[in-house]
């Protein structure tokens, strides 16, 4: 019989194991999410991340080795973003009629996301590098990393901050906007797309198709707007 | 399935090419989404081909963020070093941005008479 340690070192180095583990962790997360009546605090992404993070830490597996397997799932983010054209197309008449509210929510939400994170972090003693890493936190990861780099931030830290922001937005949006009695699915979707990019958009689709379509628009437009706003607003906190 | 994937990847490929080629701040997949949207508006055939596959992929959108999310583990030390300040800033700012964005939408929708019809 093969030495179990040798077997583990073989398996843990193959993409197969970590691809499988990613699917299982998400399956568990999604099952829990459904079992508790789709309670937003049981966010399936967060559960899967905690499970997999725990396994990596417990087994001493470096992230890059995990990613060798998980990259097949990660790759699908690009095609999935393209697929957002389908719900967007179905909602195109609604989007056209709401052009001005969309623009207002985009500018207000985007500026608030940048200014408030800088103000709070600075008040709590963050230095210039951390501020630059935080400024694009509401933007989809590939764009946020580019912005962070240009501002003198730490791109890999920005990637982690972006994901945390997405999970925070996905968890808080429904209970918060319910409590404040926002009933317009367009407003709810657009706001979460602007503030919490793709993870917020995925959450919006779980709740309502119109919300999801408007979240897709918010995410796409905010990627562009933040690229222009972040350098200007960051200079106010220099 | 195959024609749909071909069209989706073609849109992304065109998006990446133009985004990289012209150095645009828009990510390739977002530009690809716009191309596919235009193609769907022009051709009902393309709509019919793409729709079922896109709906399948989007119904599992959350799963696709898990690999990047696990990357937080690689930055636990950095996040811990910056302490609770970062977490407070992220939570406060994200919640505030959602409320301000939603409020701005509703306010301007009321001003311009843009009604939600569902």
From TrEMBL, chain A:
Principal subcellular localization: membrane
GO CC annotations on file: membrane
Location of this chain's protein in the cell: Membrane
UniProt feature coiled coil, ranges: none
Keyword Membrane in record: yes
InterPro entries, A to Z: CidB/LrgB
This protein's record includes keyword Transmembrane: yes
Name this polypeptide is given: LrgB family protein
Originating species: Thioclava atlantica
TrEMBL record, chain B:
Membrane-topology annotation of the record: Multi-pass membrane protein
The keyword Amino-acid biosynthesis is assigned to this record: no
Main localization, broad class: membrane
Name the UniProt record assigns to this protein: LrgA family protein
Keyword Transmembrane helix in annotation: yes
Gene Ontology CC: plasma membrane
Domain of life of the source: Bacteria
TM annotation in the entry: 24-42, 54-74, 86-109
Record keywords, A-Z: Cell membrane, Membrane, Transmembrane, Transmembrane helix
InterPro entries attached to this UniProt entry: LrgA/CidA
Organism name: Thioclava atlantica
Localization per Swiss-Prot or TrEMBL: Cell membrane
């Amino acid at each position: 019989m093969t030495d179990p340690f040798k077997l583990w070192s073989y398996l843990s180095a193959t993409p197969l194991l970590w691809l499988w583990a990613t699917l299982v962790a998400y399956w568990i997360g999604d099952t829990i999410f459904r079992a508790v009546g789709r309670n937003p605090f049981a966010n399936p992404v967060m559960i899967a991340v905690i499970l997999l993070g725990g396994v990596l830490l417990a087994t001493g597996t470096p992230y890059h080795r995990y990613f060798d397997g998980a990259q097949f799932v990660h790759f699908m983010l690009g095609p999935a973003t393209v697929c957002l054209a389908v719900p967007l197309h179905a909602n195109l008449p609604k989007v056209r009629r709401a052009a001005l509210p969309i623009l207002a929510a985009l500018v207000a939400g985007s500026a608030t996301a940048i200014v408030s994170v800088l103000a709070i972090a600075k008040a709590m003693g963050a230095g210039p590098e951390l501020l630059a890493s935080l400024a694009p936190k509401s933007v989809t990861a590939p764009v946020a990393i580019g912005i962070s780099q240009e501002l003198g931030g730490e791109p890999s830290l920005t990637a982690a901050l972006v994901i945390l922001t997405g999970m925070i937005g996905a968890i808080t949006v429904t209970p918060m906007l319910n409590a404040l009695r926002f009933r317009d699915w367009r407003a709810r979707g657009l706001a979460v797309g602007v503030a919490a990019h793709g993870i917020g958009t995925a959450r919006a689709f779980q709740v309502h198709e119109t919300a999801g379509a408007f979240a897709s628009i918010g995410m796409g437009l905010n990627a562009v707007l933040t690229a222009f706003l972040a350098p200007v607003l960051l200079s106010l906190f220099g | 399935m195959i024609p749909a994937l071909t069209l989706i990847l073609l849109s992304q490929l065109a998006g990446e090419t133009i985004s990289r080629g012209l150095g645009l701040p828009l990510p390739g997949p977002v530009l690809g989404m716009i191309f596919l949207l235009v193609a769907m508006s022009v051709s009902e055939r393309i709509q019919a081909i793409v729709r079922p596959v896109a709906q399948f992929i989007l119904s599992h959108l959350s799963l696709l963020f898990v690999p990047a999310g696990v990357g937080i583990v690689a930055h636990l030390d950095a996040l811990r070093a910056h302490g609770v300040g970062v977490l407070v800033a992220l939570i406060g700012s994200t919640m505030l941005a959602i409320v301000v964005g939603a409020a701005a939408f509703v306010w301007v929708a009321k001003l311009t008479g843009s009604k939600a019809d569902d």
